[in-house]
Amino acid sequence: MFSTIDTMSTNGLPNGTREAEVFDVLIIGAGISGINTAYRLQTQVPGTTFTILEGRGDIGGTWDLFRYPGIRSDSDLFTYGFQWEPWPYETPIAKGPLIRDYMKNTITKYGLDHHIRFHHKVLSADWSKSIEQWKITAEYDGHTKEFKARWVVFGTGYYDYENAFKATIPGLENFKGKVIHPQHWPEDYDHSGKKMIVIGSGATAVTLFPTLSETAEAVTLVQRSPSYIASAMNGSPVRSFLMKLLPTYYAGTLLRVLYMYRLHIVVLFCHYFPQLARTIMTMQMTPQLPKRIPPNPHFEPSYIPWTQRLCLSPDGDFFQTLREKPNSNILTGHIDTVTENGLRMKDGTTVEADAIVTATGLHMQMGGNIAITVNGEKMDWAGRLVWNGSMLQDVPNMIFIIGYTNAAWTLGADDTAHILTRLLRYMNSGGMTTAVPRVPPSGTNGYQRFWQLTSSYSNEAEKRLPKYGNSGPWRPKTSPPLDWLHGKFGDITTGLHFTS
Predict the structure, then answer these.
(1) Tell me: the pLDDT tens digits for 326-345?
(2) Which helix (H) or strand (E) holds 423?
(3) Torsion over CA of 359, 365, 366 and 369, rounded to 10 degrees?
(4) Measured between alpha carbons, how far is 382 from 400 in angstroms, rounded to an integer?
């Protein structure tokens, strides 16, 4: 679509030695969001030129970064997997290596691997009104490279890959053993025979706890407040029958729809009948506990289900560990201080440890710590309104991909990919070059927080995040079935200002 290529040096000065490659769309990140977007561009807007810049040396995003023991999905993979290449296995929950293999096989099958540039760490992106393009600077092999694109897509997720969230844990600096954050698990660390403390109550802690207990001398989960942990069968005769009866694509598609609607019904039930949902979920956890661990205070959360994310325990492995492993335990309350060889709770309980795992959340960050400017002015994510869960107020031709907090990430990512491809076709047909979300003078009838969970790490990040409105295209995505219909067929022009 572009007839000229600008010649630039690595420092941005014309010297005739290097060329800034030009694309219609430049995607940042080769995780599930970036790969899905690339496929949609390839199939729905044929002839569009695009590339994916990935700062790491492999695909996978989250699944390439996190390597802690037992890492697995906490969403079912029938909805987390790609709609166009359904998850081919019977078990809906799988370990990280199998998910990475699935992603690698998928990009090879569809030729998307040819569009990925590894070890290209994007440093900055600047929109220039004069040329109506983004200038993207990336670091590669110790040098900077420049790219230009009509559109830029941030498939960078919602957290900082380099810096983990640091919760305030009193006295942690006193500990003489090893302190590990799951985001940066040491490859050479062997937890066998060790006394382990896991601090946290989210999905990572619930995953680590049974895995560590298999070989560690002792594992104690320390939580300030309990979470809802839902046990679910990872094997099912019905799923097995469907996948044997139908071809993989049709079985996977049917299961995707069933799982999407089932979880959405659960979320709606929790929203409209919060106290009943709390009672039911607490009653489901209690019978799975050993007699030595009472439900109160360890398994009676104070919050309503889905105001924080529910934790999944495939085949009830978390509760099975508590029942069958005398080396496993759980403490609920406030830490008084970490000591040289463990920690002491405010109630006086002490626990010894060789290692402390701080599974306390992620450091939330939009845009992958990339410096973004619009016509030379720094673009701040904080406080900007989000258009259709896909674009930012007053920022031209920029898509960012965000998933759901109460459903599989990929469902939301795919809605955004559909919006992008439809916008490209619409603008190409009308000869339009830019699209900018503009908030109407009447406003958006109030505001909503962007990350609609109340976890500590999300509360800490709220001041850095954009926000939603309460009306029109400024509302958040909350219903996967309806959002899919909107992404495919709904209004994608209201709220945008187009120029030719």
Answers:
(1) 999 999 999 999 999 999 99
(2) helix 409-430
(3) -120
(4) 14
CA–centroid distance for 125 within its chain: 22
Give the Å distances, CA to CA, from 46 to 54, 320, 424.
Answer: 23, 51, 11
**Is-contact 385 448, C-beta < 8 A?**
no
Distance CA 344, CA 72 (A): 31
Q: Distances in Å between the alpha carbon of 13 and those of 6, 86, 150, 182, 375?
A: 11, 47, 21, 42, 18
Say which residues have a Cβ less than 8 Å from residue 23's Cβ, sequence separation at least 6: 49, 50, 51, 147, 148, 149, 150
Crossing angle of helices 274-285/248-272, nearest 10°?
Answer: 120
Return d(Cα 61, Cα 401) in angstroms, integer.
13
Write the DSSP assignment of 148-183 as a string of letters.
EEEEEEE---SB-SSS------TTGGG--SEEE-GG
Residue 186 CB contacts under 8 Å (≥ 6 apart), including other chains: 180
Tell me how far apart the alpha carbons of residues 144 and 128 are, in angstroms, rounded to a whole number.
19
Q: Is 438 helix (H, G, I), strand (E, B) or coil?
A: coil
The answer to whether residue 18 scores a pLDDT higher than 70 is no
What are the angstrom distances between the C-alpha of 320 and each of 181, 214, 285?
25, 12, 12
pLDDT tens profile 196-219: 999 999 999 999 999 999 999 999
Q: What are phi and psi of 107, to 5 degrees?
A: -65, -30
HSE-CB of 261 using CA atoms within 13 angstroms: 5
Cα separation, 112 vs 119, in Å, equals 17
- Is the whole-model pTM more than 0.90? yes
Name which of 181, 190, 475, 210 is nearest 357 in CA terms: 181
End-to-end CA distance of the chain: 14
pLDDT digits (tens, 9 = 90+) for 341-388: 999 999 999 999 999 999 998 999 999 999 999 999 999 999 999 999
Which domains, from first to last, does the chain contain?
Answer: 21-161+364-499 (3.50.50.60), 172-233+288-358 (3.50.50.60)
What crossing angle do the helices spanning 480-489 and 409-430 adopt, rounded to 10°?
Answer: 20
Query: For the CA atoms of the chain, what is the radius of gyration?
Result: 24
DSSP state of 471: S
Give the tokens for residue 238.
């019905």
Rounded CA separation 214/328 (Å) = 10
Residue 391 CB neighbour total at 10 angstroms: 26
Q: Where are the alpha helices (DSSP H) in 227-350?
A: 237-245, 248-272, 274-285, 295-298, 317-324
